Amino acid sequence: MKDLTRTTIVPFLADIFERRGGEEYLGEPVTMAEHMLQGAYFAQEARESETLIVATLLHDIGHFTSEFGMFSMDDTHDRMHEEAGARVLEDFFPKLVTDCVRYHVAAKRYLCATRPAYFDALSAASVHSLNLQGGPMTPEDLAEMEKNPNLKDIVQVRLYDDQGKVAGLQTPPFAHFAPMMQRVVNDHLGHAT
After folding, report:
1. Which of 174, 52, 163, 139 minimizes the C-alpha distance to 101?
2. Across the chain, what does the average pLDDT equal?
3. Cα–Cα distance measured from residue 114 to residue 137, given in angstroms and rounded to the nearest whole number
4. What is the pTM of this model?
């Protein structure tokens, strides 16, 4: 990854989507690419900022780039895809994006602890992964999570993540979001000269 630059990061991510996006998404009725694109679509429909739309699109990129590989319903330990994804993005994207990627799993644990009805709406795959990820947050975990200045946006990305599981939903392709992604990179790093 050290060879990536501000001008190659978006094509690199597009290539990952092209090559790996058709993989099954954790026992859900959508592929990985469909799941991520649906989340971004819902964020765009809600007129979120470009930064939050991009964060939603990329929240699960660690499933593609992680040396730990894909989650499966047979897993008995967490594969930490959120940390792998954040590491890939952190040299190019603002902290809001990397926080949403890094903490979208923690946001599920947070929501399970703070909104009892949230747990009841989780899919079987989400409940399985929740158990591997530590279950609902403890009061100490909640206090730590609430220190993050991006908490509201992290939770919002989590909610879009949960929506992105609709079989057959047509969304714009990755290419639709690529210029937006490049703008977020350029704004974060300063415009190229």
Report:
1. 52
2. 88
3. 9
4. 0.89
